[in-house]
Amino acid sequence: MNQMTSDNLRSAFGGESQARTRYNIWGDCAEKDGFKNVRRLFDATSDAEKIHATLHFKAMKDVSGDFAVTSMAGFGINSTSENLEAARGGEIFESTQMYPAFIAVAEMQGEKEAVKAMRFATAAEEVHAKRFATAKEAVDAGKDLDVENIYLCPVCGYISFEEEDKCPICGCAGSKFVAY
Length: 180
Hints:
Blueprint: H1 3-32, H2 36-59, H3 80-108, H4 112-140, E1 151-152, E2 159-160, E3 178-179
Antiparallel strand pairs: 1-2, 1-3
Helix pairs in contact: 1-2, 1-3, 2-4, 3-4
């Protein structure tokens, strides 16, 4: 594997792993604040980040070494609204800046598995940002997120508030989605 793509995959792996832990912590905070559905959104998104990290890890193949830290933004526990805004900002950064740059390098280097993993993550992160924005609007109005279920695609990390026939990102059958 080419070194730049390898470095980018390690960085993406680290960022997704950190986001997963952050979302678990912020989910605890949301539940303590009385927002059980926001908690479920954080939990589903945390599991989506694990999917992304796993895809990146697998795409690294034989690469070893320390994992890079992509960003220190969004650290700390604040109000649920502030945590949702930080989460949204992180997802926007990943989908508009980090992954497009990483994909360009991987494409240039002919790293097809890395490109696939990062394209799935990019598309899912765009949706995550929208889901966090919806949750923030509810929280800022003093309400919980108004959803019955939250559905996670186990292949690419796409999150939906409705049942899907198939994933719009990777085509996975909706029957395989995990409900929260």
